[in-house]
Amino acid sequence: xxxxxxxxxxxxxxxxxxxxxxxxxxxxxxxxxxxxxxxxxxxxxxxxxxxxxxxxxxxxxxxxxxxxxxxxxxxxxxxxxxxxxxxxxxxxxxxxxxxxxxxxxxxxxxxxxxxxxxxxxxxxxxxxxxxxxxxxxxxxxxxxxxxxxxxxxxxxxxxxxxxxxxxxxxxxxxxxxxxxxxxxxxxxxxxxxxxxxxxxxxxxxxxxxxxxxxxxxxxxxxxxxxxxxxxxxxxxxxxxxxxxxxxxxxxxxxxxxxxxxxxxxxxxxxxxxxxxxxxxxxxxxxxxxxxxxxxxxxxxxxxxxxxxxxxxxxxxxxxxxxxxxxxxxxxxxxxxxxxxxxxxxxxxxxxxxxxxxxxxxxxxxxxxxxxxxxxxxxxxxxxxxxxxxxxxxxxxxxxxxxxxxxxxxxxxxxxxxxxxxxxxxxxxxxxxxxxxxxxxxxxxxxxxxxxxxxxxxxxxxxxxxxxxxxxxxxxxxxxxxxxxxxxxxxxxxxxxxxxxxxxxxxxxxxxxxxxxxxxxxxxxxxxxxxxxxxxxxxxxxxxxxxxxxxxxxxxxxxxxxxxxxxxxxxxxxxxxxxxxxxxxxxxxxxxxxxxxxxxxxxxxxxxxxxxxxxxxxxxxxxxxxxxxx
Length: 629
Prior knowledge:
The protein has 21 helices and 13 strands. By secondary structure, it is α+β, with helices and mostly antiparallel strands.
């Protein structure tokens, strides 16, 4: 059954008005979207014409012209972007969250590896160059799948004329975006299948072949224009071919499940406008000055071309002029008829030279006028001499630094926008990592993913609450400023410690208060997020340490051990002295007891001797007289 046979009576009556009606009518639905894309192209028609002229002027190699657009672009693009950013992903609030830390580490490693699988740096450069030339830089992410089922994320540059979007004044209000492709027959079959893919006419040629000659080309040299439309309201992706009006080639239901739906970040705009998203080619603003420089260059080249040392001489001096042409430096030749030459006023009177002195003055004036025009152009574009490396030897270093600071002020906003663009690309990559299997992420990063981390990886908004995705600088010039900031911080840190250290040692200021002051002092140096994170961790460490019981100083512990040892020695000496005194007292008591015993024995012996003497005396008294004893 054909598509037209499925139409309802309402659809056949031509009363298709709502998007739901269009979806029920594939042919009308396709016409609706192709018409919307055409209207979006009409709105940007003038800009694309200016963009085409700008790109031709950028690559122009015409003689006798001064390609100031090429010079300015080659100067400003490296000033805006010349260093591939590295992802800087960490826990948003720095809390002690192991899951958040593991998630941040997984995403940071995965983004780094994904960016190394292809030349992400060239994608960023293309977007920045498109910003500087056509006025709008666009890139888009794509999830690729290999034959073995493995997936990876790849970024692609989008040409300035291959992108359309719905009507809106701000990027957040854009209802749909479309990307243009030129598909071969096999690509159409892979996308839509055999039935539709083989029915789509190939209506454009690969090169610059005129459209009337396309039918004479084989299919291998022909393509079909296909628009990939991302409809944010329906959260669907449609593929439409300009040469096929029976219906969309393919419809996908939100293939990437991105939080902001778009596979592209907000484009890089050279000139931001509040009333429209239609880009502006900055070159068209200062094109009159560039044309003036070109005109002056052409005039200079034309006059210089005729500025040759040429002249005429009298015919009678032909032999003399022949001799002059063959002479070397310092060599002289004899004149054939010198007397005649003197009579006619000298040989110099017979020679007339082309007056180039007037032409030299004109060329000098033209050069001055061109330099004036270039200076006006640089004032308008903001490309100061200091950005080109040109300095005045008579200027001091301070004067040159002031010129560099204020000369690059107009570039700082653009540099911040380029860094924002790189950050948004990494955030989209982080969202797309949820499409990869946990096993792939674990194998890719070397970090095991638990069930909770894998679930958190799938929840975009909750993941944003836990971690913060940023990038480091995309400008190498920031490195010198960072080195100066570090040098100034180190010098100031030493002075801070010398001033505050004694107050902390004396107990007049708590250490955590001093670190808070140091953190506030360090933020003015813009040391980077890592240094600020380290200071925050130091502050938390001191706060936790203040809540713990004070730990003795190791040196005080040593002195205390020494004092305890001395006390022990003194106590041992006292105990020994006491023991010696007790022993001496015991010996003295024993000696006293022995002396007392000895005295008692002597008294006893004396008493015994006295008793014996008394008995003897009594016996003698009782004996009669004359009896011998």
